[in-house]
Amino acid sequence: MAVLEVEVALRQKNQLTLPEAIAKRLGAQPGDRLIFELDEADPRRVHVRLLRRSYAGALEGIYGETPEEVAAYIQGERESWGP
To answer: For residue 2, is pLDDT > 80?
Structure first.
């Protein structure tokens, strides 16, 4: 696993700049949102991940591969609601 390590300085109001090399590797763009996760097992380690810009298409194929399969799934769900 290749590791990219870049040092940054924490500024006065706990702000930092995401280094260009990291932003490029993440595919991050201005306005994107990031999640920082503190590793409880090693409190000096933080993981950063990029939130999706859109969830459109994220569940593609979950309810069926064809429009007919999706319609059948929805119909089955509606029928399970009862009278």
So the answer is: no
